Amino acid sequence: MRIAIDAMGGDRGSAVTVEGALLAAKEWNDVEIVLVGDESQIASHMPAGSKPGNVTVHHTADIIAADDEPVRAVRRKKDASMVVAGRMVKEGAAAAMISAGNTGALMATGLLIVGRIDGIERPALAPMLPTMDGSGVLALDLGANMDASADNLLQYAIMGSIFRNKVHGLAKPRVGLLNVGTEAAKGNELTKAAYPLLERAPIHFVGNVEARDLLHGSCDVLVCEGFAGNILLKAMEGTAGAVFSALKTEFTRSFMSKLAAAVLKPGLSAFKKKMDYSEHGAAPLLGINGLVLKSHGSSDANAIKNAVRQARIAIENRLVEAISTETSGKRDG
Hints:
Layout: E1 2-6, H1 14-27, E2 32-37, H2 39-44, E3 55-59, H3 70-76, H4 81-90, E4 96-99, H5 103-114, E5 124-125, E6 128-129, E7 137-140, H6 150-168, E8 174-178, H7 189-200, E9 204-209, E10 221-223, H8 226-251, H9 255-274, E11 282-286, E12 291-295, H10 301-316, H11 319-332
Parallel strand pairs: 1-2, 1-4, 2-3, 4-12, 7-10, 8-9, 8-10
Antiparallel strand pairs: 5-11, 6-7, 11-12
Helix pairs in contact: 1-10, 3-5, 4-5, 6-7, 6-11
């Protein structure tokens, strides 16, 4: 299987992306990785003799920057690394693409270059959020679309359930609807309209879920519109960062606190790893007619490697085909 990686995206530069790609290539010899980007830059991050035989480079002369207007950039920068990777998926030259670049541009690449699955109105960005039990929750949509209809939320629920089944092996994923209370009558007009649709859907719907219960593993798939979902994501990221920063300050305040930190370090390190987004790799754009994965902008090499692992599993389990078949069945029915 061939996976295209946008080597020029991400906040940390191409060196980290290349490192992660090399780690993945050495881990899985059944994967061919195509690094898409400036050939000279990519080569500079590969010491002589370090490139595995299952890694190739596809040279491109342009990049999409973080501050580029997404749709304009995708339409005008036809030789940008992200656009070329998307075109490879569209044309069947790659089974998947991964990028840590501009999120809006990647969404535009998915829509304008790769295209939507027939019947899916709005694709969704679906990252894994950490939970205390380590199993995580797939949340969608977390920012691809700021608005959504009840039918959109229904499609998110079905796609999310299929993803957790095909990629994570959950036989009966629990699907929850993000809301301000657990009662069926709670919420705004959108959630009230979506609730009965989810009840009748071919999924294991467990009802409304409050944000405060999310970290305790109250569901396997969380459904929401992109506005609320992105606020939830940013609040969780900010809280986690503040907590770890405060702990570091307290544990370095005095000699005694440093001793306490030494004792607690193994447990704290394990907890931090459990909360680390990089362990999950990347967020798929579900509803795109090809496998498109968005890595976090600040991804390290381990996150890129895990993104390849996630793409590999999704390809093996024919995730895109399963979503297409399920949504087609729903339309025909």
